[in-house]
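for the writeup, i need someone to sanity check this before i put it in the appendix. the sequnce is what the collaborator sent (i think, or maybe the updated version? ugh). structure was predicted straight from it, no edits. if anything looks off just tell me and ill rerun, i have time this weekend
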Amino acid sequence: MLKPEHLLTLREVVQRGSFAAAANRLGYTASAVSQQMAALERETGVRLFHRSARKVLATSAAEVMARHAAIVLADIDRLVAAVEQEHRNTIREIRLGVFPSFGMHVLPGVLQQTGTAIRLSVAEPSQLIPALGTGGELDAAVVYQVGNSGLAWPSVLHRHWIAEDPFRLVVPASWPTLAPYQPEQLMDLPWIMHQPGSSDALFFDGVFASWSLHPRAAGYSDDFGTTLAMVGAGMGAALVPLLALRGHKDDVSVIEVPWLNISRSIFALVHPDRETAALRSLLDTLVLANPEAAA
């Protein structure tokens, strides 16, 4: 029975004109190439090469076989690729990255409902995106973006919308009610702010400036769980997305004000080579997990 590796070696010998050149291309020794070609001649019963002390010449039979070998090898490559694709679609676990509040408040319920095998990584969007490249360890990453800046990703990645996550005004429950909370009422309040220089901090600096507010920072935090703890301790007010408010404690008051029209976009980034039917089904399930459903 003909061996594909012998056909591959034959093609290289005919194309490159010598056993030595084919051996160099394939990583074999010239002796190993000679032995493979001798075995192929025995298997086919056809003389493929004229050998002399100085050189090896391919016969017309070798040239014909090499042309057909190229077709056979291409068919084998397509067969292997099709099997690997089917394997990715049906067997391999989905390697999913999510940002912390999504992993804490949304994903557990989804995992209980789906039978898909998932390997999970939890990190900030800027840490997840580099793992989506060709050969990276993630198939998809659920990330967020506040405004239109601060987050970049390769153009080859596909973007799947999941939700808009609106921000709410959060104040200590011990503070007196200031309803209806007009912007001017917030001018002298202490605030828990994002770390200076971060993309979120720059975005909210612009938001406060649009309200003609210059907030007095009582503390800094980029972790919403810590921010809520600081607010609950009476340190100041904060703007927190609805998703991060799920299951919040009674020591904070969540206030919806009509003029606070700010949200962060939540979406999944997927490398097209990893976009299987199982992954698309999982992302469709995540879209149903509306941030407002259980806030």
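DSSP finds ten helices and eleven strands in the chain. Residues 95 and 147 are 27 Å apart (CA to CA).
thx in advance!!
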